[in-house]
Amino acid sequence: MIEPGKLFQLEGGQKRRKLALTFGALERDIQGIAEKGTEYSFTNILRPEYIRQLVGILLKDPKLPESAGIELQRLLSKEPLDELRICNFARNNLLSIIGTFPAEWDLVIAPHVPQKDENGVVRQRDFYPGMCIYAEDIRSPFNIGSIFRTAEAMGAEKIFISQNCIDPNQPRAKRSGMGCIETMKWERASLDNLPETLPIFALETGGTDINEFKFPKKGICIIGSEELGVSPDALSKATYGRVTIPMKGLKASLNVGVAFGILIQKWVDSLTLL
Fold first, then answer.
1. Exposure of 38 by Cβ count < 10 A (0-12 exposed, 13-18 middle, 19+ buried)?
2. 131-271 carries CATH number 3.40.1280.10
């Protein structure tokens, strides 16, 4: 981190980049996830006051939108200071001014910490037994992270990923997964190695309307790649059927993570009726 006085001496673009990096470092420090050597270490100024001084520098930036300045002033007036929120707001506005818009994997996210009950016992993850997903050749770290996040939230038991799927432990995938990659059970598997005891169906065009599809109580749903969808080999494995999301748009195209979210919500809804 850098002293506010030194920041004043920097020029516009350099100052903005350094400020953005500093606000990001402060976010990690506030959440207790700062990397070794990047912790807040100034002894002559408390962290809240340091943040106030940095925000004061940003408020003098001629490129800061008026609405952002008003919001920063409002956040500064709060007692006690919401350090995390004001740092996050300041950083994202700096990124916008610089022209580097934040993506999902740029978010400053605390790692997963096991939750404990009132007796100090680590809580076990709840899920629908036998509800499994097969992600075939998903290439985008954002998409695989999103799929893990949705699957964990909705109660899937396990995710299988194909040999050509991106590694879920890729840093951008882990950021997108919001800690869910650490909590979901998953493994790499070929189509031939999927459990034979579970019915297999595919999310793909040309199938049964999702509003009419009879979801199994237990099963494996195959979701295909961003570019090519479910492969012919995978479709041949989907002997339970093919489910399709009806669409009206000219493009009639959904991001694979969004499509999966619609699918698993319908699947969970069907389980409550069994």
1. middle
2. yes
